[in-house]
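Researcher:
Attend to token order:
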Amino acid sequence: MTKITHITLALAALGFAAQAQAQTQPIKPFNPQIQTGGDLTIDKLRQQNLTVVKKAVEGIRLTLPQKVDQFTQFVAIDSNGTRLIYTFAVDAGPKTDEALRAKGKKMAPRVLNGMCTSADRFIQADIALTYRYVNKATQTEILRVDADKKLCPEKKPNK
């Protein structure tokens, strides 16, 4: 026989031996910490959410600034406890802060709906969101929209 045949037979024998050994040893069941039930206290859940928020801020900051549309740019993200705070700069030209606030009030329900939809996983995990819109020229806040479990309707499961 050739060397290649000997090597192939040796590898096959090792594979069969490993498979036979694996079948005789019981496999430990997958048991992630989050599913252990009773030992996950409220304090542990809060700490987990603080970590999620911190990591989200770290990751998203690396991608900023981002263009949202022709007038809006996503420029900053911060956190306060388990609240993510997104800051958007609006370049509205010569419009006054008051005019932008009036327009923002009309847009607030649509912004909230978008937040509840696009960040549903954060909301359901008790991570709150704030979207701040500032006038790019004056850096004055012109709109602030908050979203959390109380403000966002709970999604119904698909049937």
